[in-house]
Amino acid sequence: MQKLKILCVLSVSSVVSCGKSLVDQVPYPENYRSFFHVKSMELKKDHPLYKDFGGLHHVYVNHEGLEALKKGGPFPDGSILVFDLFEVTSDNQITSEKERKVLAVMYKNTKAFAKTGGWGFEAFRGDSRERLVNGNHEACFGCHAQQKAKDYVFSEFRP
Ligand code: HEC
Description:
Elements: H1 2-10, H2 15-23, E1 36-43, H3 50-53, E2 55-61, H4 63-71, E3 80-91, E4 94-108, E5 119-125, H5 137-144
Antiparallel strand pairs: 1-2, 2-3, 3-4, 4-5
Bound molecules: heme C.
Heme C (HEC) binds next to strand 1, strand 3, strand 4, strand 5 and helix 5.
């Protein structure tokens, strides 16, 4: 990390934004499909959040966060929650997943994300690594804040 910081200072781009990308950025959750599957849910056309969250989503938690999820928090640093959202088609009484819309992520780092309950929020477009939140953690936290009693997480463990 120290080495990276030095490279950063030497780079042409602003030191501030560079430091942010190294320290405050939520990492892409590699191999999240092998995390623990928590639940799935479909939001249909007439749901008020359809525009952003419409479709079928699956929620995952990594190994670090699983015990905390069982207890309803608090989550230790390193916990990752993933919200994997897909378009759906319905045909012949079958609902099927289509393309991935967004991969939303919560990543716990108490120091880096102290202003938003210790959670960093990010969303990656479709199957890409394109970042949609890009530091505006409050946009997501505003809604998750209502779950303060469960360390800002909505999903609950079920065996
Ligand atoms: C309008 C309220 C709202 C906003 C805004 C919102 N979320 Fe959520 N989020 C929810 C709800 C409700 C759930 C639970 C879904 C379920 O039960 O399957 C959830 C679930 C999640 C989960 C799974 C963990 C959990 O809390 O259950 C992640 C990860 C997540 N959201 C990330 C984000 C990110 C990243 C953003 C910003 C781009 C965001 N959310 C914005 C309401 C919101």
